[in-house]
Amino acid sequence: MRWGLALGLAFLYAPILLLVAYAFSGGPTPFEWGGFSLRWFAALAADERILEAAWLSLRIAAGAATLGTVLGALAGYALARLGRFPGRGAFGALLGTPLVLPDIVTGLSLLLFLVAVQAGLQGVFGWAPARGAATLLLAHATIGAAYAAVVVQGRLAGMEAALEEAARDLGAGPGTAFLTVTLPLLAPALAAAWLLGFTLSLDDVVVASFVSGPDATTLPMVLFSALRLGLTPEVNALAAVLLAALGGGLGMAALILDRLARVEGAPHGG
Amino acid sequence: MRRFRALVLLPPALWLVLFVAVPLLVVLGIALSSPGEGMPPFDPPLSREAGAWAWRGTAGNFAALAEDPFYGLAFLRSLRVAGLTAGLCLLLAYPMALAIAAAPPRRRPLLLLAVLLPFWTGLLLRLAAWIGLLRDSGWVNGVLLALGLTEEPLRLLYSEPAMLLGMTHAYLPFAVLPLYATLARRDPALEEAAADLGASRWTVFRTVTLPLSAPGAAAAFLLVFIPAAGEFVIPELLGPPEAQLVGRVLWTEFFTIRDWPRAAALAVALLALLILPVALFQRLEERR
């Protein structure tokens, strides 16, 4: 059994670690050792197109993660705490749909919808906004909201409603109880949901290829078209940078979550 | 309280209707329309003519999917590749989940994190790694040549095994989680009883552990199968050109051929195909 786990983990990690190691090779071909060098990182730092795409991707991912977390938190709270409400079944089904839709169907459906909206606006106002970063943000927020709702609903299901009820008994309105009791208790789940939304957005190439416009090329789109032609040392270096950034971000998130968990687990006295 | 409920419910509900339900209805509408010359390149199925609504929809796109064996083959290929990927993931994930469930409880979260972490590194980066490993002048060929196992570089990249390798690598974490959840919850007394009654380790595994973990294994299989069936990026970057799976066919139909109604019909057919596995998965989840 042990060897099975070791083998599985080796299979998962070996390719990634080799990719990072070879990013420091100075040779002209990726995955062929040409002596230690940082030249490909330098080449990367001078590549305007990649830097611009990276900056755009980060902004879209942050915006989509924020919007998606807000929407998903509301939806998850509704499912976990509001009990029966008209249309609950349909609400849950629609919320789960982005989780099971293949990317390619999500992308196609959102694009066809956006085209219809644009045509409608064009017909009524004689003008319609172009597709681009904004439409991609809306698409990623929709996907992020579905994942955020799962995280938040799961957290609320494992958390007793007693504290919220106590606040209500002491005279807090539902809004006050939500803002001062539920929301702080949800903080770790919200952080996790935001990170999930951010990562999903930063990793998406299919939905982006559909709903983005000609002026908004994200980093995954650049990476995908480069990889279609094969691997270059520059892409290799880019992969190492992205991994370092992700590792740093995840490490920080883990620290925050750990801190939060400790504060929460601390004895409340009495 | 009413106002509070409305405040919580309305934003996500409106959002979901606008950005999930309506787009899917639009896809269905366009799947029922015929291709046209203008932009967008189709004639809407429902149009206003001389002050009245006229239905001009057609089932022609679906008929074409059924008649042209190219599409049928694409669906069969997708099902096969998704099934193979899910099977490979299950085979690899089972011993991993078993080992994590057998580890001391203190170490389990760390081991689970180790399994999940690669998922967070991004799909494109992992595919870049596989391209580097498998290409003609890549690392694997280098090792094979150095060991004298082959005279000249093998064509590893852009093949079906490369594609399956990439898909298994991408989806393996999905298979470990549900398997681990089932295995960690099993009652060790059952296996101990079987062993006390004289069953060999293999018999205990075959007659007790394996049947107990069946729901988790089924969930793991489906959790990989569902996204794998519509996968586009991995076959495109690692697979052979002839591996025309549904995702790639849809992409070509839309971006290259610009037949939007046909692409929409493919999307509808793909969803119809996924309804059964998704329903099965939900059944399994509810029973837990």
Walk me through what this model shows.
The complex is a heterodimer of chains A (270) and B (288). Chain A has 270 residues and is an all-alpha fold. Chain A has a single domain, classed as Orthogonal Bundle (MetI-like fold), CATH 1.10.3720.10. Chain A has 11 helices and no strands. Chain A has helices at residues 2-22, 39-45, 48-81, 88-100, 103-125, 133-157, 162-169, 174-203, 206-211, 219-228, 233-265. Chain A is globular and about 70 Å long. Residues 266-270 of chain A have low confidence and may be disordered. Chain B has helices spanning 2-31, 60-67, 69-102, 108-120, 123-134, 139-146, 160-185, 188-196, 201-212, 214-229, 233-238, 246-256, 260-287; strands spanning 34-35, 42-43, 46-49, 52-55. The two termini of chain B are 33 Å apart. A two-stranded antiparallel sheet of chain B has the order 1-2. In chain B, strands 3-4 form a two-stranded antiparallel sheet. Chain B contains 13 helices and 4 strands. In chain B, helix 3 (69-102) crosses helix 10 and helix 5 crosses helix 7. By secondary structure, chain B is mainly alpha-helical. The mean pLDDT of chain B is 91. In chain B, 74% of the residues lie in helices and 4% in strands. Chain B has a single domain (65-287), classed as MetI-like (MetI-like fold, Orthogonal Bundle), CATH 1.10.3720.10. Chain B is globular, with a radius of gyration of 24 Å. Chain B: The chain crosses the membrane at residues 81-103, 110-133, 162-183, 204-229, 260-281. Chain B: It comes from Roseomonas acroporae. Chain B: It is found in: Cell membrane. Chain B: Belongs to the binding-protein-dependent transport system permease family. CysTW subfamily. Chain B: Keywords: Cell membrane, Membrane, Transmembrane, Transmembrane helix, Transport. Chain A: Belongs to the binding-protein-dependent transport system permease family. CysTW subfamily.
